[in-house]
Amino acid sequence: xxxxxxxxxxxxxxxxxxxxxxxxxxxxxxxxxxxxxxxxxxxxxxxxxxxxxxxxxxxxxxxxxxxxxxxxxxxxxxxxxxxxxxxxxxxxxxxxxxxxxxxxxxxxxxxxxxxxxxxxxxxxxxxxxxxxxx
Length: 134
Description:
Residues 92-134 are annotated as: Disordered. The chain has one domain. 63% of the residues lie in helices and 3% in strands. It has helices at 5-21, 23-31, 39-62, 71-89, 119-133, and strands spanning 65-66, 69-70.
């Protein structure tokens, strides 16, 4: 279900407030988001996955066992697992700029003379103001 326009605006305000409060944390969270990998990274992950699959099946054919366990197949599985993680978590290497919140009215220009407050305190104030307006 898509977000309404009001919800999208609120989400953008929260995001810009997060960038204004702690841009280093916000950029690290942005880089770690799942599903944001480049085409080249996906291609590498697929190639590594195929190598792992070959080792998995080849380990059963060669039948090299350590302690009664097919060790080559285990290595192949671990390689396949690592390729899956690479495909999911592999970022594109770009970091978002610090001026992401610019132009939305939530930048530092408005609060130049105001004392610095925590993000949670500002969100609580906004929440309370909504109920006061009704």
